[in-house]
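Writing this down once: the sequence line spells out the residues, with the fold written below as integer tokens. I am pasting one below:
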Amino acid sequence: MQMVILMTGCSKDAQIKNLQEKKKANKYFYRLKTKIMADIEKVLEFIREGAEGVLDLKWGILSGADLIGANLMEANLIGADLRDANLTGTNLKGAILTGADLTGADLTGAILTGAILKGAILKGAILSRAYLKGAKLIGADLIGANLSGANLSRANLRGAVLTGAILKGAILKRAVLTGAILKGAILKGALLTKANLSRVSLIGANLMGANLIGANLSEANLTRANLSRVSLIGAILTRANLELVNLTGSDLTGVDLRETKGLIQI
């Protein structure tokens, strides 16, 4: 008797068995997903009720969640999915958000003092007036993020990507931005006193009216950057690229420009 072989290379009985197993698996995963979502809803209810205690939400799926004013102090949010979540005024002091995805999230006025956001994704996130003093944002993706008026004093943004980010009026006093990318970023009126901006890329960035007193800009690329009316008193610009930089009305008292590169337009 000739055996009929299906396109899959399996016998008819084997295929039926596979289909049955697949259905069982689908039902299992559906129940698992339902349980996870139910658990997340319980967690959200727990948070909204203002219950105390450190939460473990590692790898949690919280995309689009309403967490306005929630207390997530020291919460474990490693790898959590917080895309488009509303975290306005949320307390995330000391929270661990390593590798978390906060794309498009609203963190207006959120408290992130000492929070760990290493490698976190914050593309297009709103962090206006957020408090990030001492936060660790090493290697974080902040492309197009809005950090207007945010406090990033002593924050570590080493290697972070802030292309096109808005940091108008932001406080970055003594912040570490070594090797960070701020191409086309807006830093009008930003406070960068004694900030470490060595090897940073500020190509085409707008720093008009910013305060860079005592800042370290050694080996920084400032090509086509707008530094008009900027205070650079005592700043370090060793081997910095100043090609086509606009320094109109800037205060360069105590700045040694002998080792800088490129043309200077004053």
User: Anything to note?
Assistant: The chain has a mean pLDDT of 87. Helices lie at 12-48.
